[in-house]
Amino acid sequence: MILLSFDTEEFDVPREHGVDFSLSDGMRVSVEGTNRILDVLKANGVKATFFCTGNFAENAPEVMHRIMDEGHEVACHGVDHWQPKETDFAVSKQIVERVTGRTVYGYRQPRMFPVSDSEIARAGYRYNSSLNPAFIPGRYMHLTEPRTWFMKGSVMQIPASVTPWLRFPLFWLALHNLPEGLYHALVRRTLGHDGYFVTYFHPWEFYDLKEHPEFKMPFIIRNHSGRQMMQRLDRLVKMLKARGQEFVTFNEFVNRNGGMT
Predict the structure, then answer these.
(1) Can you tell me the distance from the alpha carbon of 129 to that of 250, in angstroms, rounded to the nearest whole number?
(2) Whether the predicted pLDDT of 81 surpasses 90
(3) Would you state the pLDDT for residue 169?
(4) Rounded percentage of the chain residues whose pLDDT exceeds 90
(5) Is the pLDDT of residue 261 over 50?
(6) Rounded alpha-carbon distances, angstroms, from residue 235 to 127, 168, 188, 224, 232
(7) Under a CB-based contact definition with an 8 Å cutoff, are residues 102 and 68 in contact?
């Protein structure tokens, strides 16, 4: 099984590099990127989960409805991606449910930073996907955390996939920068070991970042961005489909693995 997901947030990465970047600018980039992602998924007939910030949901309701109309799951990703707050667990759920008219079951913290398990449960989520069980300098040091799904009370924890032994992260940056054949081989090895595969991307990766030097984006992010990333995602999906893999939403995964209702 493949759990494909997208952290659907307002683009704020230039702010990490000292660029004054407004919410409207960030939304413009992310809306275009999300529609490109949806085009790839629709062409391949696969489902995914979109973890959306409250900012994105409120400022792009038409895109939110396209996500739902095309059969994907909507989950929560905080409120303001740049300034996460402790109250985001509950507030983001309220916002996204109001915009979509649907119950939201899952949460992922911006930048996959630590979250309060008790608050996640109290807010009524069934699953939390806020763990990248790898070592990434400046971001994560989670080498002793479980690699695969586990329960904390009533909430299923669904970490991003890393390779079995070295815990190499197979998230968005890996597909940007590794040779595609190597990335596909690592995905297949992880699938064979774990029986399922979890990865995540962002809409702004599918925007043509190389055409905007004013964003001051590092090479590892600009590399293969935009339409090249659309092609890489398309080839990844096609490779997995050719191997008979089923694409499921995170909530479907919880249902199949006995998560609490």
Answers:
(1) 9
(2) no
(3) 94
(4) 84
(5) no
(6) 29, 21, 14, 13, 5
(7) yes
CA 128 from chain centre, in angstroms, equals 12
pLDDT in tens, 86-135: 778 899 999 999 999 999 999 999 977 778 888 899 999 999 999 999 87
171 backbone dihedrals φ, ψ, rounded to 5°? -90, -160
111 Rama class: left (phi>0) / alpha (psi -120 to 50) / beta: left
Beta-sheet strands, E only, within 77-170: 106-107, 127-128, 135-136, 140-141, 150-152, 155-157
CA dist 87 and 228 (Å) reads 37
Q: Give yes or no for a contact between 58 and 88, defined as CB atoms under 8 angstroms apart.
A: no
Task: Name the CA radius of gyration of the chain, rounded.
Answer: 17
Neighbours of 87 (CB within 10 A): 11
138 contacts: CB under 8 Å, gap ≥ 6: none
Amino acid present at 129: S
Q: What is the total residue count of the chain?
A: 261
